Amino acid sequence: MSAVLEDSLIERLVKGFGRSPLQLNGLQESDSELLRLPNGAVVLAVTTDGIVEEIEQGLYDYPYQIGWMTITVNASDLAASAADPIGVLVNQTFPHAADEGLISEVQHGIRDACDCYSLALLGGDTNFSSVMQMSGVALGVVSADYALTRCGCQPGDRLFASAPLGLGSSYALTKLGRGYQDAGRGVSFLPRARLAESHLMRGYVSACMDTSDGMVATIDQLSRLNHVGFDVELPVREFLHPHAKLIAEEAGIPPWMMLAGPHGEFELLFTVPQGLCAAFTHLAKSQRWNPIEIGTVAAGSGLRLNDARQWLEIDTPRVRDLFFQPSDDIALYLAELPRLAHPVDSAKALVR
Amino acid sequence: MSAVLEDSLIERLVKGFGRSPLQLNGLQESDSELLRLPNGAVVLAVTTDGIVEEIEQGLYDYPYQIGWMTITVNASDLAASAADPIGVLVNQTFPHAADEGLISEVQHGIRDACDCYSLALLGGDTNFSSVMQMSGVALGVVSADYALTRCGCQPGDRLFASAPLGLGSSYALTKLGRGYQDAGRGVSFLPRARLAESHLMRGYVSACMDTSDGMVATIDQLSRLNHVGFDVELPVREFLHPHAKLIAEEAGIPPWMMLAGPHGEFELLFTVPQGLCAAFTHLAKSQRWNPIEIGTVAAGSGLRLNDARQWLEIDTPRVRDLFFQPSDDIALYLAELPRLAHPVDSAKALVR
Asked: Which of A71, A144, B77, B249 could form a disulfide with B47 if both were Cys (CB 3.0 to 4.6 A apart)?
């Protein structure tokens, strides 16, 4: 597969750096960094993620949401590693003119998210600058036997989504796309990271990654790291979030495009070996969780989606690059995106 | 002691948050957050610190320095906990217009600092925004018996500085103070965090904190947390960094003011019980390290400095508040600062 721009940048950023002998995962192989601690079988999961563009572009635009998301983006990485939450550190940069109300609403969002995920506030750093930026660090622990990474799936494994997908894109479109605001109809975006659910995945799941960058980018990474492809047999409409379905219909956008935007919904995509699927699904349902079985890990590479009328092969590297190239023009992006899906013969798709 | 603005803000930020049962230190009690990990006697030290105002104000103004400092500010917090370094995560926000050269020079600074401190690069997050901001997360481990915090000193303990102090202030003055640029004479600011030295402190030191916010703020915190005062008997000139001494002389500024600025030099201030001083000093010297014995922990509160001609009682809370109040006018700050030092009767100072 061709390298994508974002991955090339990251590889350049880390070039020449030493790695820790304690670190279990390689570059890009895990949502959290996994460290085997001295004198213990316990693995530390640590991750850091910031909210910068999202604030600057107005995607997250009220203080409570900014606080909530600062914790959620990091909790979601812990979830993808199936780690037990310990706590977070928060790096806050407030605008110089921040008033009492702004600061306390941000803290309210942070506090509610910490409570929701059982994450203690461990510490942090507070700065003032011309622009508001937030980042967090989340820490968790998991026994070495159960730590999940993005690596480990095999052809034949089944692909699951923790819940319907596409809200990340449809929310972004109604927030930032000219002409789509009306379609927003007050949709809120306060996703809940799947930390609680991720416990149930232990022992069943072969690879896992969150959809923080959208489903297509997630599949692209899983595909590269595991040298496999993905056939998503369940028709896209059937696992699309209701809001994403609505926006796609009203705007006349092909539904799959709601899975392609770079702003995701913080669900989990994960794979389960065929023989464990029944037991896993039974366990999940017993806990009132209904993960959606959407497809199969295939030999080869790439992503094929079932658009109900036809099978589409998605050019996942170019989808990722399309957004990574700096441009604020969403209309241009939406015009270009359909060209990155190629109809494929369904018989061929199913037997590759 | 009266509360200072910065501490009040931090207390407000954490109000209502749960704490982790694993965390050993309370609020403000340690430069790194210390966590006793499940199933182990090992303590995890974790810290996060960002470079925001420093970049925005032009205090750190070339890419290599920005990279170096991103790691150093965090390594310094690990040093204050006497932790063995594990690694760092880096949260980078580059300007949209960042070119190849800028990015690779920042990485060069980060890499050299990581090498210097034996910190592996574990992971991170990369963003693009209108302004450049950097933050880091550092992780280390230390056995529970040897973890240092800001708490634990007693009246009678001796106060040490890891090296001469004041470069943080004098550098900031030549960088940002109108009329002081000439006095810079090409002084560079690439401080080395005292991680290597901090190993030697284990078993000897009763409390430790780095001077990232300058000596006066550090003493103010140590004083509050330990309910003690500090008598710095060594004349200020004798432990002032040569550059700070030069600037003070040329500008006719009282030398102690070079210890009062909010930009510090990332040295360590620490206390050693009287009975252990000889052994500690011997060990340090055997490793070619010459920490400076500058004073004594006293009963009571506050900071007294020996200005050679007289003893000065420094109003440390007001010194900290003076800078925390938003103002870009360094001249105003310098005019106000001398009023916060009060001459005291030397006999009284020594017997309180």
From this structure: B77
- Beta carbons of A54 and A132 less than 8 angstroms apart: no
Q: Which of A40, A91, A128 sits opposite B40 (nearest CB)?
A: A40
Residue with tokens 């009203």: A250
Burial A147-156 (b: 16+ CB within 10 A, else e): bbbbbbbeee
Lowest-pLDDT choice from B138-147, B198-207, B261-270, B285-294: B138-147
Q: Cα–Cα distance between A117 and B16 in angstroms, integer?
A: 15
Residue A122 in tokens:
């461990």
Q: Which of residues 44-63 of A touch B (CB under 8 A)?
A: 44, 46-50, 52-53, 56
Cβ density class B100-132: b for 16+ within 10 Å, e for less: eebbbbbbebbbebbebbebbbbbbbbbbbebb
CA distance A247 to A16: 45
* Interface-testing mutation among B5, B27, B86, B263, with chain A (most A C-beta atoms within 10 A): B86
Residue of chain B whose alpha carbon sits nearest to that of A56: B129
Q: What percent of chain A has pLDDT over 70?
A: 94
For residue B76, count other CB atoms closer than 10 A to its CB: 30
Helix, strand or coil, per DSSP, at residue A335: helix
Residue linked to tokens 């002998």: A21
pTM of the model: 0.92
Instruction: Kindly tell me the burial class for residue A255, based on how many C-beta atoms sit within 10 Å of its own C-beta (0-12, 13-18, 19 or more).
Output: buried
Compare all CA atoms of chain B with the CA of A102 and give the residue at the minimum distance.
B13
Q: Residue A352 has what pLDDT?
A: 44
Query: Which of B219, B215, B209 lies closest to B262, judged by CA?
Result: B215
Distance CA A182, CA A3 (A): 37
Dist CA A263 CA A250 (whole Å): 20
CA B175 – CA B196 distance, rounded (Å) = 29
Q: Which amino acid is at A125?
A: D
- Helices within A143-276 (DSSP H only): 167-176, 181-184, 195-201, 215-226, 242-251
The answer to whether ipTM exceeds 0.90 is: no
Q: Which residue has the tokens 């199933």?
A: B39
The tokens for A241 are: 């979030």
Which residues 6+ apart lie within 8 Å of A233 measured at CB?
Answer: A294, A295, A296, A306
Strand partners for A232? A305
Strands B268-272 and B292-298: unpaired
Taking the C-alpha atoms of residue A76 and residue A78, their distance in angstroms, rounded to an integer, is 5
Q: For A287-323, b where at least 16 C-beta lie within 10 A, e where not — what string? A: eeeebbbbbbbbeebbbbbbbeeebbbbbbbebbbbb
Fill in the DSSP letter of residue A2.
P
